[in-house]
Amino acid sequence: MKRQERIYQYVLEHTEPASADEANRQNGLTTSTIADALKIARSNVSKELNDLVRQRKLFKISGRPVRYCQLALNEDDPLAQDPSEYHIEDGISGMELGKKKLAGKLDKPTAAKQLSVHKDIFDRMIGKDQSMKNQIEQAKAAMLYPPRGLNTLIIGPTGSGKTYFANAMFDFAQARNILNKDQQLVTFNCADYAHNPELLMSHLFGYVKGAFTGADDEQDGLIQEADGGMLFLDEVHRLPPEGQEMIFYFMDHGTYSRLGETAKTHHANVRLVCATTEDPESTLLQTFVRRIPITIQLPPFNKRSPEERIELLRSLVTIEANRTNKEITLTEDVVQALLGSVTYGNVGQLKSNIQLVCAKGFLNNIGNEGKIMITSDDLPSNIKDGLLNLASNRQELGAISKLLEPYMVVKPGASYATPVTRKDSYELPYNLYEIIGDKAMMLREEGLDQENINNFITTDINLHLKSFYKNDLDTVNAESKLAEIVDKGIINFTKQIQPKVENRLNYRFKDNFIYAMSLHISSFIKRIQSGKPMRLMGNDLVAMVKDYPEELEVAKSIKESLEQHYGLPIPESESYYLAVLLISLKTVPTSTGKVGIVVAAHGSNTASSMAQVVSQLLSDNSIQAFDMPLDMNPQVAYKGIVDRVRAADQGEGVLLLVDMGSLSTFGPKITEETQIPVKVIDMVTTAMVLEATRKASFIDSNLDEIYAELREFHGYSRVAITDEGQSMEDDQAVAMLSGKPKAVIAVCSTGEGTAQKIKGILDQLLLQNLIEDIKVFPISIVNMHQAIEEINQKYTIVATTGVMDPEVGVPFMPLQSLLQGGGEKFVRQLAERSELSWVFDEKDAKLTRSVCRQYLSKYFVFLNADKFADILWNYVDYLAQSRQVEFSESFRINLIMHVAGAVERQLTNNPMQVNAAELAEVQEQPWFKAVQEADDQFLQRIQIKMTLGEEFYIYKLLETWQEKNDTILNEMEKNQ
User: Fold this and answer.
1) Of 117, 229, 457, 838, which is least surrounded by CB within 10 A?
2) Rounded to an integer, what distance in angstroms lies between the CA atom of residue 45 and that of residue 60?
3) The pTM is what?
4) CA 847 to each of CA 313, 851, 934: distance values in angstroms, whole numbers, following the listed order
């Protein structure tokens, strides 16, 4: 007796039959009771019980713990009906549906209430009128063409839906009565046996007794199994040439022979659909391709329209809602992150990411019976990075954002759920939610709290999904990049010889074996094929290799394998070069004792210019430079800097010199990814690059020592010599001899948000104009005058800018003028040391919502400018109206930019903090209450909860404006 039958029999023996109404009054049996009685693992019992409930053999009684009993059903019992017969109302949740079922209040639908019936599966396919229109027409033609249809090849990248599309073609043929209803789609993945052609052929065509060792009797193949139906050959490019020849013979004549036969005596009528991720012109025999008249090209996910991508996501989430029978709600940023997380695996990758996110959401909402709420906090870091991927293309982000609401609500049973195909490689072979639910209940019974339960099960979720989705992103990307420059046959050859080489040398190579050996083989094979002369074997090479006899012997065997594989004569000298490659791959490189230098800065040639100057002065060409235009995506910049770090590394780590912003945060992440020690110093100048390069040129240089010394470096011009010939390095001496260094003050409410962005703009402009003796200080309006006094002690303040004029007797540029391009004029006058008074009109340009949108789009990464421009505009209007004041355009943009910065800090979990005593003093102030009301009305409705610290700094900005405005009004009254 099978396990499920034993469990079912035990429940029948120990519970009474009950109708749906009576079931809730029964005691029933718990999972633990049955597991203990039958000596079966509790998790297995739980799995089988849930399966029996789905088969409507048992009834599950809700409660803690859950109990099970047998169920007596009759035709009138609502639980006896197939749930698919019921219409799922748009406004009903999965839990409410279940309650209605139990209460018998779910009426069978009338014809008018039935869900719309589609003529065929293609009518439900997402993109049927857009990206998939031509493909669907081709598929229908292939199925309908008399008398036996047309053989078809489906081409598309990994995860683009080739298997789903083949299943759709089969369903269409059955719906049109072209194929019998009882006929099954026969599927075969040619990659499963690609390394054993004999076994692959036996699966397809069958075999006779004695055809090979272990063939003890005759066996039909898949072609015979598909007779009268359809055979789907996935990854057909992995079919060996002899297999392709047998297939196209079968296509021509309808006959074939089994393995071990000589006469083609077997007949079959099969519609053939093949699929591949590769270019058929280079991976399939031309005689095979010519016999397939229909070629269908499926688009990659990111080439489909924004509407289609969102509908695909909704459809896949609906599958998970149906599994859990719960309503699933995704916030807008979760939807964007999921869409942006698709980087290599198309719809298949999206599906696996959705399963992971929904599984974690299910766990976090396990006590909420009817609904699952998924926010950005539920996202793992790799999926959360999807937000950055999407933000890198502002046009794409804008198009998607216009189609999204703050929430996407998906109800179970929705009609737009994509059907799960018979053999979906991205479909888990078990119900993950049952595993989560059962394990959570077991852990709760053992007394664990919810936090520990979540930790345990989150690990389980990751293990389940990682074990199922075996392809790692890095491996996929690395191999795909290698395949762009090296023939795939060479890569496969290298993979085949690697284990043999490792066994003979008793050494496990790293991933670089595949890349280095493939490139090496590709290079000399092309040299042979092109007729170019072979490399000569010098005495030094022979002498070196003689010290490594094992590697030389292995290299000779590789050479012989290559000659057999490619049918080319290979000179003996190549054995020595192969031996040198093996030696180098085994040998750990020794340190050269030199620290590498990388300069990274915003601007089209800022870093390159500094590196070029230093290279000319020190005759050192080892400095790596990376220029980052202001509109460059931070992730693109990160990858570029990683490449420069790898190029600069000579064994003693790398010093990364950056100007500002996100570049200064890259160090730890680069070290983690590359295992190269990296230290970062910001506010880079040409003098600093010069000093770093000079120190790194010493053979015994040490990264930590150079880093520590450069942290204290303030340029070469900061040391003066007195008449007595003594060095004076303190600021007072510098001030006496050459004047104090110069400073520009950037003012905002916090000193962190808008002021830092101003500092970034000015730092960039100062670098571009080669001004290295002016430092920009961002300060807060809180304790502003105290901060200015401290700066004044060591620096000469030459100008100010920001959200308000601190009135320190120097030129001031309003934020609005700076954002509108006035920064160039500002810095140019600094460079010219102009003594003229600077006058900036605060109303240079009319501030409109469109201008506001431009500012937000240009200066903020994580905000959707199209949506937030209106929200923040209305936010500021509300503040003005609540206090019956009128903001100038200059102050309006100051306030909008500040609130936008506060929102972005909230989104990145980096809000401003405030002293509790300072906060207590302002909480009853009218402006503070107005800010909180505005937050509630405009920000909370889009799920942004502003912290008290952020609200405090918005209040301080408003309070400072109010004081200044009152002073101006008083002066005006006096002068009247």
Assistant:
1) 117
2) 13
3) 0.44
4) 39, 6, 21
